[in-house]
Amino acid sequence: MSALTADEIQANLEFEVGQRYFRKDLHDVCGGNHQPGISPVTDLSAIFLFGSTTESQYGYRDEWLPNDHFLLTGVGRDGDQSWNGLNSSLASHHEDGRRAFLFEKVPDREPTVVTYVGEFEYVNHREDTIPDRSGELRRAYRFEVRPVEGGSLSVPDEIEDAPLEELYELAEQASPTSTSGISPTGDSGSSGYTRSDVVQTFALRVADGVCQGCGEPAPFENDEGDPHLEVHHLHRLSDGGPDHPDNVIAICPNCHARIHHGTDGDEFNETLVQRAESLSEQVA
């Protein structure tokens, strides 16, 4: 896919997931600093985030977490990172009325090319000890951000007890890929479920306490007394995979770790893709 240049970029926040941009041209049109990974864009009340999951010359890298959250390293290449300025601007973007947009660097491209991942929001941050560009260990901030789900949906109050076919239909309508016209609402009569809540509830109901990877019962119960399984997106949200009932499956922590860290993770994930297709055909 070719990257968009300044002549093709609009000075607004209507980005297309998966589209590539020359970073310099993106800033030339929209504003913001060309260098740091956290770049406020004042005129658009936004903040651009730039991550790289390839190995960094400074000995660390950003990373995708199993729940499709992103771990972004703070700004500052030498010595301890400062909380003032760009780093604090990410943590306070909600209070400041700024929307946050995540871009991921395309490796081995000069000038710098980035891929738009989506609108994200701050979850939390932590302090880590990592090397600076001189190789000296220092304090650095790492920010966890997650995809913006688009608000709550008006759904039945007893969603967990809904028939499986009805739950699938609701999850399908809640997906961003749906053309049904369902929209976020703050209706006090709803249970306040997000798109992700509905889709994840569907995946857990289908599994019924049994890991869909290894076929074993959930290894333990959560603090609510329910079997603990983790909902896995078969195609990452960052790769354009939708929050859709056909794109999720509930698996145990061990199988989840196998996908993301095992030597056969990609092959195992493909097996689960086929299994999810079969399950969806039985329900839909």
Automatic annotation (TrEMBL):
<feature type="compositionally biased region" description="Low complexity">
    <location>
        <begin position="175"/>
        <end position="192"/>
    </location>
</feature>
<protein>
    <submittedName>
        <fullName>HNH endonuclease</fullName>
    </submittedName>
</protein>
<dbReference type="GO" id="GO:0008270">
    <property type="term" value="F:zinc ion binding"/>
</dbReference>
<keyword id="KW-0378">Hydrolase</keyword>
<dbReference type="InterPro" id="IPR058712">
    <property type="entry name" value="SRA_ScoMcrA"/>
</dbReference>
<dbReference type="Pfam" id="PF01844">
    <property type="entry name" value="HNH"/>
</dbReference>
<dbReference type="GO" id="GO:0004519">
    <property type="term" value="F:endonuclease activity"/>
</dbReference>
<keyword id="KW-0255">Endonuclease</keyword>
<dbReference type="Pfam" id="PF26348">
    <property type="entry name" value="SRA_ScoMcrA"/>
</dbReference>
<dbReference type="InterPro" id="IPR003615">
    <property type="entry name" value="HNH_nuc"/>
</dbReference>
<dbReference type="InterPro" id="IPR002711">
    <property type="entry name" value="HNH"/>
</dbReference>
<feature type="region of interest" description="Disordered">
    <location>
        <begin position="172"/>
        <end position="194"/>
    </location>
</feature>
<dbReference type="GO" id="GO:0003676">
    <property type="term" value="F:nucleic acid binding"/>
</dbReference>
<feature type="domain" description="HNH nuclease">
    <location>
        <begin position="200"/>
        <end position="257"/>
    </location>
</feature>
<keyword id="KW-0540">Nuclease</keyword>
